[in-house]
């Protein structure tokens, strides 16, 4: 028997979510609390099977201006075993019912489920869910299995990547852990990176809020690469359950020949392994493995660390009110831009 429960306790929620397969930091209690400070209302649903947690969905809900309707998004959820046909059907049915009951024009899901998973994909299609025209997060990702020892992890990388890691160290790059006090410096580098690489970012307050909050909770870790007593690059890691995610990377235009980003990633992998994580998620891979993809340059860098490419199902929408849904999708691009407030940079969280 499958039973649904709405959760209002942080410990209960995080203990349940991290016990489930395919769990993700965007389904953490802390992420919901952060988004609540930026106009979203988290609703947390937990399904029990045989008295144990079997599935979870933290749904972020936001009012649509000047209407009694809302839009809803389960960022990287639901979290569940996608092979359990009865469970998948029950979870989707409950989300559909909730959409009608709470006037969600649509609810979007985008779990970390493999793209070719027959049970989950079959259930989505049979129940009338549509592949979303608005893919909020990166559809695909790349992960590194952290079970081998450090020597093996290094040996598995491409020769040029290993060379650049050692080159950075030889040229005097030093990687140090940063603190909350270093966040303004990191944001300045991040803003410089955005200007140089041509992607849009949010105001500083947004990032300083999420970074500082997660660092104080012990769920985020900042690494900075220094050269000649000056920070020249950095990255932010998020940690939840048995996984660590590389979400934000930044660098200045100075001393790029010292290859700081290679050493940064290696130290990030080492840190994740020391924390007991089993998976390091490089967050973001091309939709298609082709040089024409906008992410190809970034992907070539990530490929040097020999991750496993993971093609995933992407985001799917269920519309409880189809005419309004198509109006939003096709006729009101301003509201579609509002939807992008779910993500920090390009398609990051």
How would you explain this protein's 3D organization?
The chain is α+β, with helices and mostly antiparallel strands. It folds into two domains: 2-137 and 313-342, Aminopeptidase (3-Layer(aba) Sandwich), CATH 3.40.630.30; 141-309, Gcn5-related N-acetyltransferase (GNAT) (Aminopeptidase, 3-Layer(aba) Sandwich), CATH 3.40.630. 37% of the residues lie in helices and 25% in strands. The protein is built from twelve helices and 15 strands. The chain has helices spanning 10-18, 29-36, 85-101, 118-126, 150-156, 159-170, 183-197, 204-216, 260-274, 296-303, 322-331, 333-339, and strands spanning 2-6, 41-49, 52-63, 70-74, 79-80, 104-109, 130-131, 141-145, 174-177, 220-227, 230-240, 243-251, 279-281, 308-310, 316-319. The strands form two sheets. Strands 1, 2, 3, 4, 5, 6, 7 and 15 form an eight-stranded mixed sheet that branches. The chain has a seven-stranded mixed sheet with strand order 9-10-11-12-13-8-14, sandwiched between helices. Helix 9 (260-274) links the parallel strand 12 and strand 13. Helix 3 (85-101) packs parallel to helix 4 and helix 6 (159-170) packs across helix 9 (260-274). The longest helix has 17 residues, at 85-101. The chain is globular, with a radius of gyration of 20 Å. It starts with a strand and ends in a 10-residue tail after the last helix. The relative contact order is 0.16.
